[in-house]
Specification:
136 residues
Length: 136
């Protein structure tokens, strides 16, 4: 009886959460409400959980509930992993865009680019171009 009261209180909190989230993410609110209501039903009528488990080929109703909980937990973890990966990709794209913008901005502030002489590795330096010789 104490476990039933504890589980009822917990599932009531899940219902409150589902109600608060249903406006922003309706599918989560619907699934959480359905799971909480099914949980409340099986908490107060455990014989029906056992009958459903026997129909599914599982020995006890509590085993069915544990297996269902494991599957739901794995789906939630997969969903969170996918969301985290998407956020990391968005942060990477944002950081890249900010770095490119800052580089463009600093180049604009520095003025026009100056001509540079090409660097030749392994050879003696050549004479500067004719334009530079004439200015000297």
């Amino acid at each position: 009886m104490i476990a039933q009261l504890f589980l009822t209180a917990f599932l009531a909190l899940v219902l409150v959460y589902a109600w608060s989230v249903h406006r922003t993410v309706p599918i989560i609110g619907l699934l959480a409400s359905g799971s909480a209501l099914a949980g409340l039903y099986f908490v107060w009528v455990p014989e029906h959980a056992t009958a459903l488990a026997a129909f599914a080929g599982i020995g006890r109703g509590s085993d069915l509930i544990v297996y269902t909980w494991v599957v739901i937990s794995l789906l939630i973890m997969l969903n969170l992993h996918i969301k985290l990966r998407l956020q990391l990709d968005m942060i990477t794209r944002l950081a890249r865009a900010v770095a490119i913008d800052r580089t463009k901005e600093s180049r604009r502030e520095a003025g026009p680019p100056q001509k540079r002489r090409p660097v030749m590795l392994g050879r003696k330096a050549e004479a500067p171009p004719i334009e530079l010789q004439a200015k000297k």
